[in-house]
Design goal:
With 439 residues, the chain is of the alpha+beta class. 41% of the residues lie in helices and 21% in strands. It has two domains: 205 residues, Metalloenzyme, LuxS/M16 peptidase-like (Cytochrome Bc1 Complex, Chain A, domain 1), CATH 3.30.830; 203 residues, 2-Layer Sandwich (Cytochrome Bc1 Complex, Chain A, domain 1). The termini are far apart.
C-alpha cells in the first residue's frame, strides 16, 4: 500500500485479475469500477452501436433479477450503477454507501457474472438508440461531429458508428458474444475505491477468479486518414453553419503527450487565451466559439478544429482558421503562452482528482494506454519539464498535414458562390442523409 496525497493506493494482480485499491477514510462510500480494455472494436463489423447496447443491457436482467428488480434494489439502497464508453474501453461503475455494501454485493455479482440480455430489453434499447440517432439530424453540432468521426476513421472500428441499419441488425447473440469477449481476466481492470474493508476487497476481487484467462483478439491496424474530403450536409432552413476541420492525429501511447496538451491549449484548447479564439472570434468576429482538440487512442487519433458561424461568414471562418494554424506552425508558441498553459494544467491536476472515483478514472486511463503505475503521481513534474522547443517541434510535426477533412452543416445555397474559394479539400460531396454509407 502506497501512501499518497490521493489516499492509500495499492496495485494488485490476483490470479490474473489486475487492478488497484484506493483507500480513503474521509468518505462514507465505496466505488467499484470495472474497465473492459476494448471499446468500439467489440461491435461486429457493420453493427456499430452494438457495444453501447451491450453496456446498457448488462443491468437489464440477470439469472436471478429482472430489470425492474435491479432498478428497485438500486433505488432502495441509494446506489448507482453507471457505464461509460469510449473508443478504447467500456467502464462500469457501482457507487454505494459503505453501510450498504453487503446488501448490494449480490447484485454486483449478478450483473457482472450472470447477465441474461433478454430479447424484450434488447428491443427496447434498440428503439431508444434509434430515437437518439434520428435526433442527431436535428442537431447541427452533433451531426457535424458524427459525420466527421465517421469519415476521419473510415475502415477502422473507431468509425464504426451506429446507424439505423446497424442497430436494427443487432441480435441477442451479438450481445452475448461481446460479453464473452469482454469478461476475461486479460480484458478487465478493476479499481476499488473509497472507505472499504480488506474483507470486502477480497470479496470483490474473488468474484472474477473463475473468468476465462484470455480472449481471442484480432490485430487492428493503425487508424489512418488519407486524401482530401469536403463533406457538406445541406440544412436548407439553417442560418448558421457548424464546421469541423481536421486531419489524422496520433496515438495516446506517444511519449511526452503533455507537450501536445500544452501546444493545443495555446492553439485552440485554452478558451479566451487561445490563438484561434483571439483571431477568429475576438478580432474577426466570425464566431462566438472556436476550439481545437486532439482525440488520441490506442490505434491512432485525429485533430479537429470545431466552430460555427453565420452561413455568410462560414467560408471566411474556415480560411482564417487555416491561416491561424499555418502561422502557429511557422512561428510557434511564446514563453508566456507556455507558462500560462502550464499554470492551467498544473492547477487543474488536483481539482481533477478530488474524489475516489476521479482517482479511479485516472488509474484506469493509465492502464488503458500503458502509461505505467506512476502516471498518477508524477503528472505535475511531467508538465513542468516540457520545454518551448518541444512544444514548437510537435506543432511542426503534428499540425502540418496535407490530407484534410472538412465537414460543414449549413445552408448550401447561401454560400455557393464562396465555396469555390476553398482550395485543397477535394471535390464537394453533398450529403442528404448522414447514414448514406450504410448497406
Amino acid at each position: 500500500m502506497k501512501e499518497t496525497r490521493f489516499g492509500e493506493i495499492e496495485f494488485f494482480n490476483e490470479n490474473g485479475v489486475k487492478g488497484a485499491i484506493v483507500k480513503r477514510d474521509d468518505t462514507d462510500s465505496v466505488n467499484i469500477s470495472l474497465m473492459i480494455k476494448r471499446g468500439f472494436d467489440l461491435s461486429p463489423e457493420n453493427k456499430g452501436g452494438a457495444v453501447d447496447i451491450f453496456a446498457s443491457l448488462l443491468s437489464k436482467g440477470t439469472k436471478s433479477f429482472s430489470a425492474m428488480d435491479i432498478a428497485e434494489r438500486l433505488d432502495y439502497l441509494g446506489a448507482d450503477f453507471t457505464y461509460k464508453i469510449d473508443k478504447d474501453s467500456v467502464i462500469f461503475n457501482f457507487w454505494i454507501l459503505k453501510e450498504f455494501f453487503q446488501k448490494i454485493f449480490p447484485l454486483v455479482e449478478e450483473i457482472f457474472l450472470y447477465p441474461e440480455f433478454p430479447e424484450d430489453e434488447l428491443e427496447r434499447e434498440k428503439l431508444k438508440t434509434l430515437s437518439s440517432l434520428y435526433q442527431i439530424v436535428d442537431s447541427p453540432s452533433a451531426l457535424a461531429s458524427y459525420v466527421f468521426t465517421k469519415n476521419i476513421y473510415t475502415n477502422h472500428p473507431y468509425g464504426n458508428l451506429a446507424t439505423p441499419f446497424s442497430i436494427n441488425s443487432i441480435t441477442v447473440e451479438d450481445i452475448k458474444s461481446i460479453y464473452r469477449k469482454s469478461f476475461t481476466k486479460d480484458m478487465i481492470y478493476l479499481v476499488i475505491a473509497g472507505n472499504i474493508s480488506d474483507k470486502a476487497i477480497k470479496q470483490i476481487i474473488s468474484l472474477f477468479k473463475n473468468l476465462p484467462s484470455s480472449s481471442e483478439t484480432k490485430k487492428i491496424e493503425k487508424a489512418e486518414y488519407r486524401g482530401n474530403k469536403f463533406i457538406f450536409f445541406d440544412k436548407k432552413d439553417s442560418t448558421q453553419s457548424q464546421i469541423r476541420l481536421g486531419f489524422e492525429g496520433i496515438s495516446r501511447r506517444i511519449r511526452n503527450y503533455e507537450a501536445i496538451n500544452l501546444m493545443n491549449f495555446i492553439l485552440g484548447g485554452g478558451g479566451f487565451s487561445s490563438r484561434l479564439l483571439l483571431k477568429v472570434r475576438t478580432e474577426a468576429g466570425y464566431t462566438y466559439s472556436i476550439s481545437s482538440s486532439f482525440e488520441s487512442f490506442n490505434d491512432g487519433g485525429s485533430f479537429v478544429i470545431s466552430s460555427f458561424s453565420k452561413n455568410e461568414t462560414t467560408i471566411e471562418t474556415v480560411k482564417l482558421s487555416e491561416k491561424v494554424l499555418k502561422d502557429f506552425i511557422k512561428k510557434g508558441a511564446t514563453e508566456k503562452e507556455l507558462k500560462d498553459a502550464k499554470a492551467y494544467f498544473i492547477g487543474n491536476l488536483i481539482l481533477s482528482m478530488e474524489t475516489p472515483s476521479d482517482i479511479a478514472g485516472k488509474l484506469m486511463y493509465a492502464e488503458r494506454y500503458g502509461l505505467g503505475e506512476n502516471f498518477l503521481f508524477n503528472s505535475e513534474e511531467r508538465y513542468k519539464r516540457v520545454s518551448l522547443e518541444e512544444v514548437n517541434r510537435f506543432s511542426k510535426k503534428l499540425l502540418n498535414k496535407k490530407d484534410r477533412l472538412l465537414v460543414i452543416v449549413g445552408n448550401l445555397n447561401s454560400m455557393k458562390i464562396k465555396i469555390d474559394k476553398l482550395e485543397n479539400y477535394g471535390e464537394l460531396l453533398v450529403l442528404e442523409n448522414p447514414f448514406d454509407s450504410e448497406k
